[in-house]
Design brief:
The chain is an all-alpha fold.
């Protein structure tokens, strides 16, 4: 508050106000213009819950592919399509979702994603035995995903001061990883306990309850903004897209996200196929994949906090990409299980921690482009590369042994390129110029 007082005093002095009462009144108005509210953590919590549930719905069938093929009497590919549909739908829906988020706000944007997840999630549970209906309802949930994921930096900027936004974005991204981890670990247990139809009904009930909780607790904005007006105004989606593609730093950042998210999606998708030619069991592959996610959870908490603490983005993005490059190379070649687990945890920690910092950096470096627009384009890059990398790894694996060492080596080189590209980024001027007087 003291910093805000001095900021207001300077602003008042600049306006040439000489009357003492006018000065006092103007200072009070300036100081009261922006502040933070403890309710921002409630808002972030219900948003994180919505994201986590949506990601559970996405990853549901990945750990039970064999059981699902038997239950529905279809091929592995058809079960894989249930998860792959999220990536495909994202390519179509991402830009319209960003426009709705930017134009109509959080309750309309995130609310759309929450409703679609809740309604189609419940329908998925009610009609769990019909594969064709299941696919339709899965696509309905997939349509809701961009409305949730593209809002991460929007929620952070609407409710949090500049000095806390990478932390808030990190926690929002953390919910994605946590949802994936819950889906991967809980689904097999629930299937064993209640069957696939019972598991889907439980998830449907949870998704519907989450939608109700969101609309009870979610608010569009705090009573007063958490920052000065010049830190909040944003260009809407159409004008924002024009500004994005004129921004050199953001173009490099899109390439980095194209590589980084594509690498993560493809490695986690093929983790069992990557490790089995080296003699690792399916259980060991599952533990390795789980450690990647757990490492990402830790990274999404620690690295964004440090980025906010030291008011820097680029050093932490570069450190994350360097660590991810080295650890991916170790995952590619190691045949020692203990070293594999360490490498997998480090890979998740560094690569997934770069995501929330990158999202926030993109929102800052493209100011005044709306956060939904910049966030959406970065995630769009990851969906495109995810599809491309997943199929490429399958095409270029060894036909004799099934080894994926060659495609993994290519991914390691791409990660090295992303690290080198990060050195071309300029530090966020918005961050360094606007962390004073932000309502802390």
């Amino acid at each position: 508050m003291l910093k805000s007082y001095f900021y207001a005093l300077i602003m008042v002095s600049d306006q040439g106000i000489t009357d003492r009462n006018s000065i006092k009144q103007s200072i009070v108005m300036q100081v009261n213009e922006f502040r933070t509210y403890s309710y921002r953590w409630v808002m972030l919590a219900v948003y994180m819950l919505a994201i986590a549930v949506n990601q559970i719905m996405w990853i549901t069938f990945a750990p039970i592919t064999i059981d699902a093929t038997v239950f529905y009497g279809v091929s592995d590919l058809k079960i894989g399509i249930l998860s792959m549909s999220f990536m495909i739908v994202y390519l179509v829906v991402s830009i319209p979702a960003s426009w709705i988020i930017d134009t109509y706000g959080i309750r309309a944007g995130v609310g759309t994603g929450v409703i679609l997840t809740g309604v189609f999630g419940m329908l998925r549970g009610l009609f769990a035995t019909d594969y064709n209906l299941l696919l339709v309802f899965q696509i309905g949930i997939a349509v809701g995903q961009p409305f949730l994921l593209n809002s991460i930096t929007k929620v952070a900027s609407r409710w949090f001061p500049v000095s806390e936004r990478a932390t808030a974005s990190g926690l929002g991204t953390l919910a994605m990883y946590f949802g994936i981890l819950l889906g991967m670990s809980l689904t097999p247990f629930l299937v064993n306990y209640r069957g696939i139809d019972g598991m889907l009904y439980m998830y449907g009930t949870i998704s519907l309850v989450t939608a109700i909780v969101f609309f009870i607790f979610a608010k569009e904005r705090p009573a007063t903004p958490p920052c000065r007006p010049d830190q909040e105004e944003r260009a809407l989606a159409i004008e924002g897209m024009r500004l994005l593609f004129r921004n050199r730093d953001f173009l490099w950042l899109m390439v980095i996200f194209f590589i980084g998210l594509g690498v993560f999606n493809s490695v986690t998708t093929w983790i069992e196929n990557i490790l089995s030619p080296r003699g690792f069991s399916a259980e060991q592959a599952g533990i390795t994949g789980g450690l990647m996610i757990l490492g990402g959870v830790a990274g999404a908490i620690i690295m964004p906090f440090l980025s906010d603490r030291y008011r820097r983005r680029i050093p932490f993005i570069s450190i994350a990409l360097a660590g991810a490059t080295l650890s991916l190379a170790m995952v590619t070649f190691t045949e020692n299980y203990s070293l594999l687990l360490i490498s997998a945890g480090a890979f998740g920690f560094f690569l997934l921690s770069s995501g929330p910092i990158g999202f926030q950096y993109g929102a800052e470096v493209t100011f005044p482009v709306s956060e939904g627009t910049s966030n959406g384009f970065l995630l769009l890059m990851g969906q495109v590369s995810g599809i491309a990398f997943i199929f490429s790894m399958d095409w270029f694996k060894s036909p004799a042994t099934g080894s994926m060492t060659i495609p993994l080596s290519v991914l390691s080189v791409l990660m090295l390129i992303s690290f080198l590209l990060s050195s071309r980024l300029n530090e966020s001027a918005f961050l360094t110029n606007n962390t004073k007087g932000d309502g802390r």
